[in-house]
Amino acid sequence: MERTQIKELIETAIRQLDYAYVPYSHFHVGAALLAENGKVYTGCNIENAAYTPCNCAERTAFFKAVSEGVHDFRAICVVGGMHGQLSELAPPCGVCRQVMMEFCDPETFEIILAVSPEEYQVFRLKELLPMGFGPGNLKGGARA
Ligand code: THU
User: Fold this and answer.
1) Tens of pLDDT along 124-138?
2) Neighbour tally for 90: CB within 10 Å
């Protein structure tokens, strides 16, 4: 991905930090998911007094896109920090990596983890979820 496109995606993810509903952890997470069609789907984490229904920012973004019929994705940017202050990378949890595995090619899908538009690292899904179980495994090995 181009540097300017990465920067834009990071800026969009950072804007989502304000929307995080985090009265329990106070850990704000923002996500910006770039679809193959060029559209960007945003997400924030949404917590719940019963704890288990908490939803991560990444899954909010994916589920918004999938609920609109979009299944093909290029990259996601994730940012996060206590009280919305970004001081270190906020890597996606295992459940979110598995959701990515459902819809994204682990060889090409990019995960951009950032602390600012200037300071970031880019990973492929296969690096963050080696030997992941995906739709292809239910079809005798080939990816869906
Ligand atoms: N969180 C995310 O939104 N994404 C992740 O991948 C890791 C964790 C959220 C869940 C919870 O609201 C807060 O961060 C603290 O775990």
Assistant:
1) 999 999 999 999 999
2) 22
Q: Output the pLDDT for position 35.
A: 98
Alpha carbon of 27 to those of 19, 82, 86, 87: distances in Å? 12, 4, 10, 12
Between CA 14 and CA 28 the distance in angstroms is 10
For the record, the structure tokens of 41 come out as 């789907």
3-state secondary structure of 53: coil
Residue 100: phi, psi to the nearest 5? Answer: -60, -40
Ligand 1 close to Cβ of residue 92 (< 6 A): yes
From 104, 105, 121, 101, select the one nearest 113 (Cα to Cα).
Answer: 121
Q: Does residue 127 have an active-site annotation?
A: no
